[in-house]
């Protein structure tokens, strides 16, 4: 955790940042990828789809665990992103499809045809548990400091659904991360029901907001705009939605101008240029 004095002064609050940009893949996604690969039936190899950091996380973790990885990315994936994935030496990179939904279908078909373990970027119990280590670290690093609210970017809901629900009370040190997602979330809310948990989405891409409003999962009808395309999915995962519906207090929608202003604020605070999608 890093204290943010500039943002704290500007908001009149005590603001802390969880610096997941310091990961070797520059994003939190490697946590869930590594846990899913280490926990799954991966004898024949793994396959993953991603328009963003999940691809790098799977490729790196597979290499560390000596497992062959197939990574499926959209056809328009940037050269820089492809080079970042290639540095981790996956078995192959398949470029096919125009968006996340396309590459998801391709990856699932490859997994079935070649008997590979499919590592979903967010709608997977082991992935969610891996992301939950974000919260465990926050608790260890800020200890018993007062906590009023948590703000978390929302893509497919993998991080929001469990990981930040995990960082609410110092007693959590004694709570083991398990696959019982519902029990974990319920425990946290019982310990500190006063803490507010907010998801944050762009007004141009807010599947969680729309799903909560309708009371059921809904899918965006259009692809994400260019500024946010690394957020990837146009829908919330089934497991993720069930957890968010029960434990997320509200969803804050922000404009493109506000996203750009937030990138500037973060740069002023840390001298790091953040991904506009918040990942």
Structural summary, described in words:
This protein is of the alpha/beta class. The protein folds into two domains: 2-23 and 127-270, 3-Layer(aba) Sandwich (Rossmann fold), CATH 3.40.50; 40-121, 3-Layer(aba) Sandwich (Rossmann fold). The protein has twelve helices and nine strands. The protein has helices at 5-11, 29-39, 53-64, 79-86, 100-114, 125-131, 133-142, 158-162, 181-191, 207-214, 238-247, 256-270; strands at 2-3, 16-17, 46-49, 69-73, 92-95, 117-119, 149-153, 196-202, 250-254. The strands form three sheets. The protein has a four-stranded parallel sheet, sandwiched between helices. It has a three-stranded parallel sheet with strand order 7-8-9. A two-stranded antiparallel ribbon has the order 1-2.
SSE blueprint and pairings:
Layout: E1 2-3, H1 5-11, E2 16-17, H2 29-39, E3 46-49, H3 53-64, E4 69-73, H4 79-86, E5 92-95, H5 100-114, E6 117-119, H6 125-131, H7 133-142, E7 149-153, H8 158-162, H9 181-191, E8 196-202, H10 207-214, H11 238-247, E9 250-254, H12 256-270
Number of helices: 12
**Helicity range of the residues?**
40-55%
What is the CATH T-level topology of the largest domain? Rossmann fold
Strand order of the largest sheet: 5-4-3-6
CATH class of the largest domain: Alpha Beta
Distance between the termini: 16 Å
- Number of structural units classed as domains: 2
Mean pLDDT: 78
